[in-house]
Write a structure and sequence with these properties.
This protein is an alpha+beta fold. It has 10 helices and 4 strands. It has one domain. The chain is about 60% helix and about 10% strand. It has a 4-stranded mixed sheet with strand order 1-2-4-3, sandwiched between helices. A hairpin with a 2-residue loop joins strand 3 and strand 4. The longest helix has about 30 residues. It is elongated and about 65 Å long. The model has no long low-confidence stretch (mean pLDDT about 85).
Length: about 240
Amino acid sequence: MNDLPRANARRALLVLVVSAASVAVVGLVIGLLVGATIAAVVAGLVAGIILAGWVRARATDLVLGATGAEPAIESEHPRLFNVVEGLCLRSGVTMPALLVVDDPARNVLVAGRDPRRSAIVFTTGLLESLDRIELEGVVAHQLARIRQDDVAPATLVAVLGRLTRFVLRAPLAPDRFVTADLEACQLTRYPPGLVGAMEKVSGASTVSSAPVSGAAHLWFAPPRDDHSDQSHPPLEERISLLREL
């Protein structure tokens, strides 16, 4: 598990390289058509590098902006801040930005550039339905994903879309949720908390009203009900596994 952060950092870099290379290829094609191959390739490479840098810097903001979430205010959500701060101290994870979206769905999204710059979006439906122990389980899951640096490549894939999704499937692999579930239970030392949260989530709608195209894999549970997203293992399977701990 200690190798996961490094592996995921390499995957994030690969996503950026693929995006830059794709722009360079477009430049090559244009160059072949107009007879200025070298100039077009150089221009394509420069444009690709600029694009990759811009996406890396802005990907998290683009994802968060699409959710319509607002920064959480500590005086309005004292329990949430208390839980996150406590688990961050215990896990060594840098405190992420906390946002809340007014949405009855029971779900939560995590996005970020790296383990030091990340954000978690909670729906009001989730916050209102969970008790403190269950909330700790869900927050621990998100912090586990941040600590593994699973979030960085997944956030880039959400912004860059189909090309990187096809080339790099690892950030979308369903088993990363199970890995985060297990690490969350190690952090809280109380698997029934996360199990209880999953049972409440599975017993209600997780379908978000926010646009989720390309970003479904960033959510704790499937944010849409068309069954086209294969990035999440069934909640029932995750619950069964945790009950065996």
